[in-house]
Fold:
Amino acid sequence: MRFIDRTILPSDITPQAVFENRRSLIKAAAAGSFGRALAPWFSREALAANPEKLNVQLNATYSAADETTPYKYATTYNNFYEFGTDKADPAANAHTLQIKPWSISIEGLVKKPVTLDMDALLKLAPMEERIYRMRCVEGWSMVIPWDGFSLSKLINKVEPLGSAKFVEFISLADRKQMPGVKSNIIDWPYREGLRMDEAMNPLTLLTFGMYGETLPKQNGAPVRIVVPWKYGFKSAKSIVKIRFTEEMPKTSWSQFDAREYGFYSNVNPQVDHPRWSQASERRIGDGKGVFAPKIKTQMFNGYADQVAGMYAGMDLKKYY
Ligand code: MTE
Structure:
């Protein structure tokens, strides 16, 4: 199949209803009725309500040398459908999320099911900063310093049973705090999942902060998952439940359209999305916006050395 080399249009990647809604937003923006996305007056305080400094050490072994994305782009151009479907919606709307108190319930096939509050979670391991390349399925990418520790530290604590083959991550879905949950675009709550070895891979980060500060709400405060060799939607935000299962869990996007979004969703320039190529990407925030030059997407987003072994012998066209 040949692809026309052009920027992916919102209509390519978005359910029609969402696209229509977005068009009316764009019209409103053009009419000058609002202008919130990437407004230059945004200060860090405006982008993240009361960010707290974190005590973090850079983990150079797991950090990319690429130039990091400016904070204002990483916090104002993203997806968090619980707060709306436009890229600017999470930053504009996520202030209603209540992050204190917060806890994660760890359940399913484990010897020691437990509910951990934030204090208990933060005590599990020292926090590290990891500069990760992030690749969205839509064709854009960023380079973000995330703060957290390997999810394996938590998994080891709860002692999964031998029958546990997968880990499911479930985000908060509360209509009172999250206006987007009133829509039926996704069968809420947002769910993602990993195979057990993927969840145990040291790169899989239980994430509490970014750029040395606690996570802004729009980026998944107070705790989320970050999986840098997979498309961005695998990295579930604001999680409240981690469940260990024998069966492969149903995930939000594969339920939405199994042909377009598979369970594995490894970044793979050789396997195209049914409607567009995945061979290249544009880095957000280099000052040129959608006109930024395309760069080649790397296999496993550049993390092949650390992760390719987990997929040896698998047909990655079939297990996309
Ligand atoms: N998690 C929840 N709960 N809801 C979402 O809509 N969107 C995903 C992922 N996690 C999403 C989510 C998608 S599509 C992407 S690209 C990333 O979050 C983007 O957010 P980030 O830039 O903060 O990583």
